[in-house]
Structure formats: structure tokens, C-alpha cells
């Protein structure tokens, strides 16, 4: 090493990237300030990935602190810097007001690609991985369809929730001249020739060994993960492992979801592993830099990184429909909830004082049973609210979760010919219920909170949605409301009604969804600071535990 060198950078012999060593103490301090992901207590050697952003940062650092460069390092750094500059120059051109979208060959007569969709496609072409987090109703499916028409993106694979696979095929055939094939079974078979194959998250795991049959010699062009928050648990699920295999095999990766974060903001790391794993690096580094406490400390900084890397875009839909949200305090069956006092208190005690396994099981049981009882206790009041909304012939979308609650609603609202669109019905039954609500005599469609994500067409029938049971995730509420607040809605605004009971699971759930919504908004929209005074309870239902224990303490006093 020369006298002027402040360290040594070599190519990593164990894999892609660089290794920096022999840096003096004052240089290491500066190095850790520039690269926060480096462990503060480490004295090196330090390993860096070879992505273009890291190359540019290392090159800049070496300008300030010259180092001895091993074989191939200078060329690798230069290549990364040149590529990054070219990418940013191209992104700047695409995002400029004077940019002219290219022509899209393969559109059906009368179809067109909007400018915002064309920009997203061009960003995807350049950076090869993109999260399109456009709000509900902005036309994300059409963005994917347009991307399939660009060079190098066929054959393509779409992975979608089961209730959306048929919709994908219909949209692609209506929008483009591409041939699309819906894969409905879990058992692999010889697929017919097609440009696009549409799988379901529920069957993709069974097709892992058959992936090779829908790629040509050039490999898989594009993989689209619709409602990508389905993959928020990552490789811990069968569908997560299968989709990661697709992501690594594809030339380009596109994630679609207006609500890619379902719970806390740290889910964004897992989501980006399927699209642009280079943006956040290793999970340990991400957590150390952005979430040392397990929660994002600065959601807006995460968003800034995503935007700066051109890894995420988010746009309002054309002609966005205003949503009027109303929280309505409704009565509930006091005896129904009072009957649960004894066992609820026992579960709360186990959740705090029991063994590790007892605590986990007690929390789950308390969550499920109190939510169910709360839904049942207020079910008739919710039905009464829906009845009033439908009195003038209006149609209502009524969202819930528990079968026992549905049964009460079906009985109380029988005169309005309610239909079910939940996890129990087959795809055929769901389509029949959908058609009856949109075009038939069904005045009330009872939909499961998580069964209608991405569903299009309900806006033609209704402008009122009632969230009859709450979900722990505010993203779920947003998605349900988005079935009506989207392009094609003829009303001036959509009315979203939240009937809330004063007891049971509703109070802590209202609080928790507010905390999560703040964090999610910071990552996705950037203009809402995280409420740092908000209490972090360490568990989504710990509030239920504390509620019952406090009630018991109050009675004892």
C-alpha cells in the first residue's frame, strides 16, 4: 500500500462486491457516516455490494480518501458510476414535462396508454424493477399490460389473488392483442402457447418445478406481482418462495399495489426483495439503519430512498373520487360481551404472565374471540344502519369478517336480497354475486374484508360502503373503500361508514389502525410525519390484553 493510501479496496473473493480494509480510525469514522448500514462497532474489513449506487458512493469516498485499488476494482467502480449517471439522465428525461411517450404496438383499436402509465413503463424498462403504488383506481393493471408490449418483456407471468385472475385475462384481451392464459389448477399440466400466463398466489407454489415450460430460450421477460402485499411474509410462505424464484428468473419485475404495506412499515424491505433487492440491501442492514427498534423511525427517509432509486412511483387516479368517511357509534349487545368477561380476563393474564407458548396462543385466542364477539354484538345495529342506507333503493357494499356476523346480516337484511362475496364462495359463486349486485336485484353485497382487493366494477352499482367489522390493517379498509372510489364511479363522492362499538375490540383497533396508517403514509406519501409520541405496544393485540387487565384493576379498586 502506498504512503498516500487510506486503505485497500479489493474485489470480494467470496462473491459479488468489494472488501475495504486497512483504513485508519478517522477514515473508518467517516466511512460509517457515509454508509450507515456498516456496523458501528466493527473495525473491518467492510464488505460492500457491487450495485451501481454503492459504486458511485464508494467512488466519491475514494476521491476524498484515496485508497489502493485491487485488480478490477477501478473498472468496476467506473462502470457503476457511468451506469448510474446514464440511468438518472434517462429518468430525468422521462420525467420531464417535455417527454413524449413512445408508441405502443399491440393495443386494441380505441385503446390508449396514459402518459403516467407510459412513464412508469419506461422507468421499469430502464431500472428493471418497479413498485407501482398508484392509488386505488389509477389503472395499474393497464400499466402492466402496456409494459408487456415493450421489448424483452415476453413471455410474461402475472401472479394475482384468486378472485382477480379471470379479471386479468379479460383486461389483457380487451386492452391488447396479447394472448393470455389463466392457470386455475394447482396440478401442473402442459400449458398452451401464450404471451402471458396468469397464476394465482394460491396455486403458484405447486408450479415451481414446471416454471421452465412457459419461458423461451431467452428466459422469462416480465413477472408481475399484483397486490404484492400478498408477499409481505417473504420466504416464510410457499407462495413467497415460489414468487422469489420467478423474480430472480425474470428480466424485469413489476409490483402493483395501492397498499403495499399492510401493517408496519418494515414490510417494505420484504416487498422490495421481489423487485429491487439492491435498494435496501441485507435485512439486518435495513433494520439497523431505519428500524433499530423494530419500527421505522423515519418513514419519509425510506420513501426518499425509494424515490431517489426510481424504485417506487405513486400517482393519483385520473378524476380521483372524494371519499367522505364517517365514524358512527352504534349500540351493541352488552350481555354478549359481558358473557366473555371471565375467559377474556384469563386469556389476558396468560398473555402477560404465561409461558412463551401460552402467551402466544392466549394473544391469538383473545384477538379472534373478542373480535368475533364484538362483530356479533353490534351486528344488528350495523344491519339497521345498512337498512337506512338502502331505504331509497340505494345499493350498499357491506364489509365484515366472521361467518356468524354474516348470518345475522343475511337474516336482518333478507328483503334486500343480500349476496356473499367472501372466502367461502367458489370463484363461480363470487362472479354470480358480483353480477347480481351490479346488474341484478341484489341491493347489498356482503364482502369479506380481504376478499375483494383489486376487484373492479362494483363502482357501477354503489356509492356507499359500510365497514361493518374492523381490520387491524388500515390498508384493508382503504382497499375495500377503493372498490367504489375509483374511475367509473358516477357519484360526486363515495361515503365510507365505520360503525364502532364503545366496548370489545373496536376501541383498541381504532387506535392501532391510526398508528399504522401514519407510518404507512410516511413511506408511501412522505408528507405525514410519524407520530413519535404514539405508544408502541409490541403486538397488534396487546392493547386488548391491557384493556381487560385495566378493567379488572378498576373493579378491584
What do you see in this structure?
There is one protein chain. With 557 residues, the protein is α/β, with parallel strands linked by helices. The protein is 42% helix and 14% strand. The chain contains 19 helices and 17 strands. The strands form 3 sheets. A 7-stranded parallel sheet has the order 7-8-6-9-10-5-11, sandwiched between helices. Strands 12-17-16-13-15-14 form a 6-stranded parallel sheet, with helices on both faces. It has a 4-stranded mixed sheet with strand order 3-2-1-4, with no helix packed on it. The protein is globular. The relative contact order is 0.09. Mean pLDDT is 83; it is low at 528-549.
CATH topology of the largest domain: Rossmann fold
Look at the structure and give the CATH class of the largest domain: Alpha Beta
Number of helices: 19
Strand content: 5-15%
Contiguous uncertain segments of 5+ residues: 528-549
Strand order of the largest sheet: 7-8-6-9-10-5-11
Radius of gyration equals 26 Å
Total domain count: 3
Mean pLDDT: 83
Estimated structural class = alpha/beta
CATH homologous superfamily annotation of the largest domain: P-loop containing nucleotide triphosphate hydrolases
Helix coverage percent? 40-55%
Amino acid at each position: 500500500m502506498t504512503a498516500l493510501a487510506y486503505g485497500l479496496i479489493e474485489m470480494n473473493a467470496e462473491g459479488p462486491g468489494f472488501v475495504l480494509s486497512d483504513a485508519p480510525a478517522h477514515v473508518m469514522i467517516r466511512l460509517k457516516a457515509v454508509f450507515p448500514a456498516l456496523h458501528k462497532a466493527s473495525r473491518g474489513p467492510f464488505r460492500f455490494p457491487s450495485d451501481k449506487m454503492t459504486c458511485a458512493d464508494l467512488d466519491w469516498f475514494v476521491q476524498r480518501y484515496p485508497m489502493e485499488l485491487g485488480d478490477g476494482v477501478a473498472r468496476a467502480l467506473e462502470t457503476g458510476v457511468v451506469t448510474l449517471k446514464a440511468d438518472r439522465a434517462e429518468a430525468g428525461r422521462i420525467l420531464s414535462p417535455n417527454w413524449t411517450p413512445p408508441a405502443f404496438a399491440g393495443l386494441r383499436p380505441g385503446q390508449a396508454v396514459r402518459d403516467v402509465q407510459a412513464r412508469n413503463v419506461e422507468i421499469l424498462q430502464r431500472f428493471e424493477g418497479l413498485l407501482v403504488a398508484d392509488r386505488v383506481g389509477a389503472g395499474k393493471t393497464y400499466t402492466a399490460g402496456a409494459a408487456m408490449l415493450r421489448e424483452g418483456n415476453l413471455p410474461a407471468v402475472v401472479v394475482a389473488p384468486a378472485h382477480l385472475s379471470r379479471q386479468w385475462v379479460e383486461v389483457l384481451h380487451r386492452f391488447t392483442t396479447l394472448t393470455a392464459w389463466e392457470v386455475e389448477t394447482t396440478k401442473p399440466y402442459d400449458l398452451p402457447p401464450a404471451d402471458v400466463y396468469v397464476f394465482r398466489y394460491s396455486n403458484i407454489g405447486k408450479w415451481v418445478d414446471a416454471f421452465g415450460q412457459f419461458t423461451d430460450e431467452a428466459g422469462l421477460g416480465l413477472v408481475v406481482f399484483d397486490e404484492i402485499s400478498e408477499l409481505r411474509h417473504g420466504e416464510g410462505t410457499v407462495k413467497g418462495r415460489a414468487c422469489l424464484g420467478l423474480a430472480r428468473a425474470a428480466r424485469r419485475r413489476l409490483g402493483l399495489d395501492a397498499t403495499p404495506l399492510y401493517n408496519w412499515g418494515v414490510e417494505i424491505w420484504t416487498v422490495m426483495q421481489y423487485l429491487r433487492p439492491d435498494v435496501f440491501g441485507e435485512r439486518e442492514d435495513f433494520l439497523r439503519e431505519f428500524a433499530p427498534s423494530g419500527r421505522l423511525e423515519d418513514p419519509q427517509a425510506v420513501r426518499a430512498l425509494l424515490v431517489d432509486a426510481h424504485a417506487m412511483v405513486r400517482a393519483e387516479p385520473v378524476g380521483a373520487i372524494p371519499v367522505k368517511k364517517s365514524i358512527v357509534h352504534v349500540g351493541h349487545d352488552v350481555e354478549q360481551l359481558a358473557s366473555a368477561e371471565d375467559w377474556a380476563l384469563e386469556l389476558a393474564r396468560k398473555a402477560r404472565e404465561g409461558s412463551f407458548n401460552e402467551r402466544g396462543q392466549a394473544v391469538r385466542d383473545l384477538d379472534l374471540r373478542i373480535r368475533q364477539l364484538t362483530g356479533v354484538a353490534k351486528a344488528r345495529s350495523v344491519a339497521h344502519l345498512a337498512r337506512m342506507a338502502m331505504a331509497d333503493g340505494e345499493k350498499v357494499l357491506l364489509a365484515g369478517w366472521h361467518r356468524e356476523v354474516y348470518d345475522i346480516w343475511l337474516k336482518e337484511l333478507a328483503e334486500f336480497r343480500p349476496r356473499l362475496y367472501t372466502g367461502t364462495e367458489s370463484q363461480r359463486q363470487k362472479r354470480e354475486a358480483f353480477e347480481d349486485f351490479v346488474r341484478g336485484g341484489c341491493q347489498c353485497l356482503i364482502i369479506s374484508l380481504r376478499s375483494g382487493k383489486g376487484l373492479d366494477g362494483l363502482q357501477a352499482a354503489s356509492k356507499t360502503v359500510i365497514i361493518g367489522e374492523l381490520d387491524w390493517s388500515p390498508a384493508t379498509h382503504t382497499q375495500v373503500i377503493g372498490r367504489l372510489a375509483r374511475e367509473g364511479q358516477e357519484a360526486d363522492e363515495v361515503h365510507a361508514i365505520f360503525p364502532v362499538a364503545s366496548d370489545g375490540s373496536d376501541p383498541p383497533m381504532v387506535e392501532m389502525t391510526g398508528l399504522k396508517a401514519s407510518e404507512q403514509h410516511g413511506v408511501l406519501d412522505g408528507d405525514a410525519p410519524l407520530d413519535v409520541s404514539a405508544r408502541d405496544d409490541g403486538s397488534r393485540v396487546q392493547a386488548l390484553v391491557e384493556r381487560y387487565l385495566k378493567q379488572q384493576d378498576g373493579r378491584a379498586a
